[in-house]
Amino acid sequence: SSSGFENWFNKYVKFKEINDNDLEVTEEAKNENNHLDYEVNLDNVTRDKNKVNIYFFWGDGCPHCEEEKELFESIEKEYGKYYNLYTFETWHDEDNNKLAQVFAEAMGEEITGVPYTIIGNKSFKGYGSSLESEFIKTIKEQSKNNYDVYFDVIKKTS
């Protein structure tokens, strides 16, 4: 029975109690693990209440990133009134790579690859043509949302 197992377990297994004084986290360790401590200042990024900012983190040579770039080029004429696109190459630019980590952390996520795209308060890891309609739907919905991870989270903590 579960109560029998619990009694047996508690009889033979002892856990050490840990209090706050037993834990020591250095400031260096805190900063190392908290990317939001990284100061971000993107002078070219603007906020437009009628458009959503799209943050597109990509890698030079990544075929999925190239497909996503082609999507943005193909929809710009029809849907460009809904968004501003900001792109950051991360494979050959260490600052952009760190920036991607900061943005992901601000979204409550962890990323391990590209493409990584943030549209308003939604994000996408990876890309395939099957996501085209989802991207367009998200752009249109988020253009009315007025949420921007850079202005509402990252810039406030920098």
Can you put this structure into words, describing what you see?
By secondary structure, this protein is α+β, with helices and mostly antiparallel strands. The chain is 43% helix and 14% strand. The protein contains 6 helices and 4 strands; from the N terminus they run ααβαβαββαα. A 4-stranded mixed beta sheet has the order 2-1-3-4, sandwiched between helices. The protein is elongated and about 70 Å long.
In short:
Helices cover 43% and strands 14% of the residues. It has six helices and four strands; from the N terminus they run ααβαβαββαα. Strand 3 and strand 4 (122-125) form a beta hairpin.
Report strand %: 5-15%
Mean pLDDT: 84
Give me the number of helical elements.
Answer: 6
Structural class: alpha+beta
Helix fraction, binned, reads: 40-55%
Could you tell me the number of beta strands? 4
- The span between the termini is 54 Å
Order of helix and strand elements from N to C terminus: HHEHEHEEHH
The Cα radius of gyration reads: 21 Å
Q: Any low-confidence stretches, pLDDT <50, length ≥5?
A: 15-35
The major pleated sheet works out as: 4 strands, mixed
Defining traits:
4 strands; about 160 residues; alpha+beta; four-stranded mixed β-sheet
Q: How do the helices and strands line up, and which of them pair or pack?
A:
Blueprint: H1 2-12, H2 27-33, E1 52-58, H3 63-79, E2 83-89, H4 94-106, E3 116-119, E4 122-125, H5 132-142, H6 149-157
Parallel strand pairs: 1-2
Antiparallel strand pairs: 1-3, 3-4
